[in-house]
C-alpha cells in the first residue's frame, strides 16, 4: 500500500489544485522543471539536495542554463543557477526587493513578516544596522568553549556512539541561548521541552501535500497544528518579556535598547534568530563532522594543525581565527559548499521588467538564489561532489556563497564560522571519530526532508574515541 501513496496523492493534489500549476504566459519563455517529477519528489519527501541534483542541476551542467523555473511552495519561482546572475540580483535591492511572505504558509505564520529576513527599504536598514551591531559587539568564544566542554563531558573518556545531528542541534541551541537570548535552554543537560515542541511544530509544517499547495491551509485548515504554533509563539513572547524585565549583555538585550523597534519586530526577529541560528548551525556542524569522519586523513591533518597552533593552551578568539587555523577553516568552507545548510535563499520579487543575463524577467516574478546548484556547477567546481578542502587554495572563494551575496548576506557569518571552529577544534584535540559499521551514510551523506530548504543530515550516528 505504501508504494501506492505518492501516485494517489499526486493525482488528488493535482485534481484539487491543477490551476495552480499552470505556468503564467509571461514566464513560458524560461526553461523549467516539469511539474510531475517535482510533485513526486515532494510527496515522497525527498531531501532538497537530492531533488536539486536530480531535477535542477542538469539545467546548469548539461544545458548551461543560468536560471530555471521551479514549482516551490505554491508558486512558480525562478531559481538562479549562475553566480554572476545571482550577484546581479542580490546587489540591486530596489529592483529585486524581498518578496512578501505568502499568507497561506504556516511556516511564515510562525516566523512572521516583520523581521530582517523579509523586510525592505527603511525597515530593513534599521533592523540590519541594529542586528549587525548586536552580533559584532564581541565574539562569544568563551561561551562556545564552555559548551564544547559540556559536549566532551557527554562523550566521556572511552568510546561512545551518538546520534550526532541531535548533539549538534543541542549544542547550537545552547550557543544561541547563551549568546543571543541570554537564556539557558539547557539543551545539552537534558531533553529540552521547548526544543522538542519546536521540532514537533516544524515536522507538522513539513507535510508535503500542504507544501505543494499552501492554499489547502484555507481549504482544509490544520487547526490543531495552528494552535501548537500559536502556543510556541507565546513561549517566545514570554522569553522576550522576561528579557525586557531583566536585560543582560546578550544580543537581544542590545536590540531592546532601540526605541524604534516595535514589539512585533522584536518578536519576529527573535523567532527568526532562533530558527536560522540553530537549524543552520546544526546542519553545518553535522556535515563537517561527517566529512571529517569519512576522510580520516583530513581529520588527522586538521588535528595536527590544532596541535601545532594551539597545543594544550586555552582556546581564544585569536588562536581560533581563520588565519590561525587555515586548514580547519578550509574544511569548514568545503563542508558548507558541498552540503550547504540552506539550499536556496528567501525569494526576491522583481519590481519591474528586468534583464538578468540573457533572460527577460517580467515584473512580479519570484526569484531565489539556488546556493546548492551554484556550489555544484561543473563548469565552476572541479569534481563538485568530492570533498576536497584544498580546492580553496586554487579555486578561490568567488563562487562560494553559503551565506548568500550582496548587502543582504547573512550578518552572522563570522559568528557561525567561529562556532564551528571552536567545537571542531575542541573535539579534534581530544577525540577521533568515524562512522559506525553499517551506517546509512557510508556511501554518501543522507539528509532529512525539510520544509525550509534546510540541509541537515538524518540519523547521523558517529563513534567517538577518546585520545
Automatic annotation (TrEMBL):
UniProt keyword Cytoplasm, yes or no: no
One Pfam assignment: p450
Pathway as given in its UniProt record: Secondary metabolite biosynthesis; terpenoid biosynthesis
Gene Ontology molecular function, alphabetical: heme binding; iron ion binding; monooxygenase activity; oxidoreductase activity, acting on paired donors, with incorporation or reduction of molecular oxygen
Entry's localization field: Membrane
Family: Belongs to the cytochrome P450 family.
Signal sequence interval, chain numbering: none
Keyword entries, A-Z: Heme, Iron, Membrane, Metal-binding, Monooxygenase, Oxidoreductase, Transmembrane, Transmembrane helix
Gene Ontology CC terms: membrane
Ligand binding (heme): 410
Co-factor(s): heme
Protein name: Cytochrome P450
Species, as recorded: Mycena maculata
Domain of life the protein comes from: Eukaryota
Lineage of source species: Eukaryota, Fungi, Dikarya, Basidiomycota, Agaricomycotina
InterPro entries: Cyt_P450, Cyt_P450_E_grp-I, Cyt_P450_sf, Cytochrome_P450_monoxygenase
